[in-house]
Design goal:
By secondary structure, this protein is mainly alpha-helical. The strands form three sheets. It has a five-stranded parallel beta sheet with strand order 2-3-4-1-5, with helices on both faces. It is elongated and about 115 Å long.
Length: 777
């Protein structure tokens, strides 16, 4: 007859006896058996009443027990385990067993390490000797296809030894039409703990209380997969005790407090290739290494997509990786190519899409029409036909649902490439071409109007037009700083709108926008897109048969080819075409500009004397005109002419020309603001400083260059300012001024950040200074 020792007490006594006999500490037994120190201590204290069979087997092997001793230890452990349900019950421990782990699981090392650390600390007592107040919960979130379930299952298997009292998994079916109710989930969990159907409480609250009571002193791992929301999860969470709950969800479940969060990201490219390698084998991947990298990129580094590509190739052992890569390279066929049996990227996205409210679905599919890598709620509102506030709410809901990624700083959002393709498919299927085109037209007209008004902030004498032209004055940028911020953030959108206007024959809108951009383009010479802007405008002028506007925008285009795209051949062709158009319509101002832009292109081609002749002709042409526009043009040409003379070794003549420019600026230009004329004066000062440097009058050069730098910085013209800083650094180098090196370094770094080719000039000046400063041998 068995002794009256309580269930589980016999096991702890036996375990302590065998460990002492073996001469092992709890730490040594833990290491030998692969069981945590905390788990061993809990068993010996009787807190863990009946560990699982595999844990007992690991302990028996580590203790060196005989077969009979091991069988006796297992028999004692079995007495402390929850009684299984009867065979007539549909639920039970087997039904809630962890899903099968995948052999080729890849990456996620840091996230897994954080979970292992969390599990290792469970059950630790505080300094007062009390148990932790709550069990641990780890929430695993992310967009569809990131492998949340695969990660949670893999982590659960790795964490298993820390939880000898059981590991249970419940699919909450959050994406189904009828998700699992908390009440039903608790019935399954309580059944797995040995509670018979007849003993189950009837209400949700009573079942939750029983569940928390059962787990109070047990180390149980609970996996709640595919959760819908907080209301579904909260009743299932253990209360106090050393249990750990892993929750996966496509939604952020922001209402769950005091939880450990794991927000899975896309794989890195090398991790995506590693996953392909584990699926296909190293030989096959190494044989087509570049194709494997291309596949990883075409899958957007999304684990589900990479796995599908790998499984598809695995089922076709003779198919080359490059063949699948070529198929996926066609965007219209990419989602079709990412199918392997029941695995489909499109289906993963569809699950989430079907859960969305109607307005949010509309926002998602229409936002995919936005140009560029990201978009703001303004664009989404226009495309979806919603108010701004409604669009913000939709974007935030989609972010919480893992369908959009939000910017860390700005209120902007980004699609995963494959999800964008899916959304575009829905646009085609649910909206059709007519609705889609109407949304794009509506957005393009609004964007062009806002871009035009924003750019006009840089033309000071047209401030009234700025306020009148914006399509939504209440939200319009105020001042140059806000205008520039909007133009930079929405560059892809308004540029796409300009192209759409050009294709649609809205030629007057194209010309108005391009003309408004003229002054703003001077502030952002590093944008190569100015070639696109003024090419569209030139074509629109031709379409309207407006020869003067054609000359204007051909001149702007020549400027863009010269200074933005660094293509002097294209610049000369545009300038010559502008000269012909200007002479045809008798516009002396545009004739002068065309001669000047052509001279700039000739100079860049190494034809300095031809450039000099054209500049002289341009200056004479403009001096004969009596208008504010002609004076400003003359200032530009004179500064350019002086610059050329200096490069020809005629610095004294250059200084004379630039002094003449400065005098025009000091006199003023009627009808133009002091602020505008000050910019021309800054250019003249910069050129004067450079002339003085060329004449080796170093000390005289410092003052005009410092003033030019200050003027450009005050005008928020970074490229111009940094170029002036390079020139100042050269002047300071001539006097061995202690600021010279730091001045050149600052300019070099700033120009590199601006992606301006002028950074090479700054680097060369810095290298020359270092060489001159090096001690001679």
């Amino acid at each position: 007859m068995r002794s009256a020792i309580p269930a589980g007490d016999e096991f702890r006594q036996q375990l302590r006896h065998f460990r002492t006999r073996a001469g092992l500490s709890q730490e040594a037994l833990s290491e030998a058996a692969g069981v945590s120190v905390r788990a061993v201590a809990d068993m010996e204290r009787g807190r863990t009443l009946g560990p699982q069979r595999r844990t007992v087997q690991a302990l028996a092997q580590a203790l060196g027990l005989s077969e009979d001793e091991a069988a006796g230890l297992e028999k004692s452990a079995a007495l402390g385990r929850p009684r299984p349900r009867t065979a007539t019950s549909p639920a039970g421990p087997v039904a809630l067993a962890l899903p099968r782990d995948i052999r080729d699981f890849t990456a996620r090392g840091p996230a897994l390490a954080r979970l292992l650390e969390l599990a290792a600390g469970l059950g630790d007592t505080d300094p007062g000797g009390n148990e932790p107040t709550v069990s641990a919960v780890s929430l695993i979130t992310g967009q569809p296809g990131l492998g949340k379930t695969a990660f949670a299952v893999h982590a659960a298997h790795r964490l298993g030894p820390h939880f000898p009292d059981g590991q249970f998994a419940v699919d909450l079916r959050g994406m189904d039409a009828e998700p699992t109710s908390p009440r039903d989930a608790l019935a399954r969990l309580l059944g797995a703990m040995g509670i018979a159907d007849g003993a189950l409480p009837s209400t949700l609250d009573e079942r939750a209380a029983m569940w928390r009571s059962l787990l109070r002193d047990r180390r149980v791992l609970l996996l709640l997969d595919n959760a819908l929301d907080e209301d579904q999860v909260l009743p299932l969470l253990p209360g106090t005790g050393p249990s750990l709950t892993l929750v996966t969800s496509r939604n952020s479940l922001a209402g769950l407090d005091s939880v450990h969060r794991t927000d899975l990201a896309l794989l890195r490219r090398e991790e995506a290739v590693e996953l392909l390698t584990r699926i296909l084998g190293p030989e096959r991947v190494q044989a087509e290494a570049q194709a494997a990298r291309d596949l990883a990129d075409l899958c957007g580094h999304l684990p589900l997509a990479v796995r599908i590509a790998g499984q598809r190739l695995l089922s076709r052992p003779h198919e080359r990786l490059a063949k699948l890569a070529a198929r996926l390279a066609a965007e219209g066929r990419r989602l079709d190519g990412l199918e392997a049996g029941s695995l489909r990227v499109r289906a993963a996205f569809a699950l989430s899409y079907r859960q969305l409210p109607p307005d949010t679905r509309t926002f998602l599919r229409r936002a995919a029409l936005a140009a560029g890598p990201d978009f703001g709620p303004e664009t989404g509102a226009l495309l979806a036909g919603l108010t701004f506030d409604e669009a913000v709410a939709c974007a935030e809901d989609l972010t919480d649902a893992g369908l959009l990624q939000s910017d860390a700083v700005a209120e902007r959002y980004r699609f995963h490439d494959l999800l964008r393709l899916y959304a575009l498919e829905q646009t085609e299927a649910e909206d059709g071409p007519e609705v889609r085109d109407a949304a794009l037209d509506r957005t393009a007209r609004w964007m062009l109007a806002r871009a035009t008004a924003a750019a006009l902030h840089y033309e000071a004498h047209r401030e009234r037009a700025v306020r009148a032209a914006d399509p939504d004055p209440d939200s319009a940028p105020t001042g140059k700083s806000e205008a520039r911020a909007w133009l930079e953030a929405e560059r892809a959108q308004w540029l796409a709108a300009l192209h759409r206007a050009h294709r649609s024959g809205w030629h007057r809108e194209v010309l108005d926008t391009a003309e408004a951009m003229h002054w703003f383009s001077d502030m952002t010479q590093h944008w190569e897109q100015w070639v696109e802007v003024f090419s569209c405008a030139t074509d629109s002028a031709r379409a309207l048969g407006d020869r003067r506007q054609e000359a204007v925008h051909l001149n702007y285009l020549a400027w863009a080819h010269n200074l933005c795209a660094h293509n002097p051949e294209a610049a000369l062709a545009s300038a010559d075409a502008a000269l012909e158009a200007a002479r045809d319509c008798g516009d002396g101002l545009q004739e002068g500009w065309a001669l000047g832009y052509g001279a700039g292109a000739l100079h860049r081609q190494g034809r300095a004397e031809d450039a000099h002749d054209r500049l002289r002709e341009s200056a004479r042409c403009l001096a004969a005109l009596d208008s504010p526009e002609a004076r400003l043009a003359e200032l530009t040409i004179l500064n350019t002419l002086g610059n050329l003379l200096r490069h020809l070794g005629r610095a004294a003549e250059a200084l004379e020309i630039h002094r003449r420019s400065e005098q025009i600026c000091r006199t003023g230009v009627p009808g133009r603001t002091d602020e505008l004329v000050a910019l021309y004066h800054a250019v003249a000062r910069q050129q004067i400083g450079n002339d003085l440097v060329a004449l080796e009058r170093w000390h005289e050069a410092e003052a005009p260059l410092r003033q030019a730098l200050a003027d450009f910085e005050a005008a928020h013209m970074p490229v111009w300012a940094e170029h002036a800083r390079v020139d100042l650094g050269r002047a300071l180098s001539g006097t061995r001024h202690p600021e010279a090196r730091q001045t050149l370094r600052t300019a070099r770094d700033a120009l590199a950040e601006l992606k301006s080719p002028l950074h090479a000039e700054a680097a060369a000046a810095l290298a020359a200074l270092d060489e001159a400063s090096a001690p001679s041998r």
